[in-house]
Amino acid sequence: MDNLLSSFIIQAITKEHEGGLFDFNATLPLMALQFLVLTILLNFLFYKPISNILDQRSEYIRNSLTSASASLLKANELTSQYENKLAESRKDAQNIIKQAQQEAQLLVSNKIKDAQKNAENLLANAYQELSIQKEQALKSLENQVDMLSNQIRLKVLDN
Known about the structure:
By secondary structure, the chain is mainly alpha-helical. It has helices spanning 2-18, 27-158. It is built from two helices and no strands. The chain crosses the membrane at residues 26-47.
C-alpha cells in the first residue's frame, strides 16, 4: 500500500508538470491567433457598423439640435419684432385717439363759442327790439296821456 501511494503521488506530480493550467506548447499560439481572428472578425462585422450607426445618430441629433437652436433664435427674433411692432401700433393708436379727442374738443368748443355768439346776438337783437317797443309804447302812452290830459283840460274848462 505504501508502494501504491507513492506511485500515485509520482503520477500526480508528473501530470502536474506535463499539462497544467498554462501549457506552453502549440495550442498557446493557436489560441492567440484564434483570439486575434475573432477580434478582427467581430470588429468588421459588429463594432464598425454599430459605431457607424451611433456616429450617424449622433450627427443627426447634433444637426437636429443645431436646427432647433436656429429655429428658436429665429422665433425669438420674430417674437421681439412683433412685440416691438405691436407696441408701436399701440402708441400710434393712442396718439390717433388723443388727436381725435383734441380735434373733437376743439370742434365742440368752437360750436359752443358760435352758439354763445348767436345767443348773445339774439339777446342783443331782442333787447334792441324791446327797447324800440318800449320807446314806441312810451311814445304811444305819451300821446295817450297828452290826449287824455287835453280831454280832461277841455272838460275841466268847459265846466
